[in-house]
Task: structure prediction
Amino acid sequence: MSVVTELGYLGLSVSDLAAWRAYAAEVAGMEVVDEGEGDRLYLRMDLWHHRIVLHADGSDDLAYMGWRVAGPQEFAAMQEKLSAAGIPFTVGSEAEACERRVLGLLKLADPGGNPTEIFFGPQVDTHKPFHPGRPMFGKFLTGSQGIGHCILRQDDVEAAARFYELLGLRGSVEYHLHLPNGMVAQPYFMHCNDRQHSVAFGLGPMEKRINHLMFEYTDLDDLGMAHDIVRGKKIDVALQLGKHANDQALTFYCANPSGWLWEFGWGARHSTGQQEYYTRDIFGHGNEAAGYGMDIPLL
Ligand SMILES: [Fe+2]
Result:
């Protein structure tokens, strides 16, 4: 059976490449790689050639997300599974795979219309040590847990859940959040490895494809340093420091140069074998800057 093993990479469309270059390096600590192409920059978080591509084409939204399968056998089996389920996809040409620095590539869309790629064989530059964009105490937590997690726009949560189940993820509703208007928000979280969730949706209508990307540091002091830098630069913080009930990570959410959120985190627990749900977070995550689609009360 073919299942995805991690959220491996992201492509982001941005309008201000210079602002992103500074933010990724000086705020987050990522390594910026410029291959001289002019229309893109690569962000490294580990030994992979990149984990994020910044495309200077101006839409300030998610361009694509890449889900990894183990190897060519799983890649072929995934194509059979998608075909049997009637899900359209195209097989990336050699040039397209080369552009992504992978050995094999499928292109499709999830039920929310989010460009989705399935790949195997990323280019890993073991000869090139990770060099953070600013001093760091530790590293980014990637490895078998992938890049982090994304919250996506989905008009049909059930259809999205079935799609990601087909890819091999598992999960369910993990919160019942009581809103001031009497409604109950029920966000849906899904995992495919030890990371407690790699994708989530069900936050209601969203202007952009993506609400936030969460990534994680191995060292608490890097989260603290990032927080100091964000506060020093007076970057909008949408959710203050707090601890989620589901992944139990200590995180805060701040604006990136494209006007959506990056969630900086540390200390998440692993995905559990059995599903649970929660009615609030453990502490913190108070709302601060409004307008980023995270105005739902977590406490
Ligand atoms: Fe998150």
Remarks:
- The CA atoms of residues 13 and 29 lie 20 Å apart.
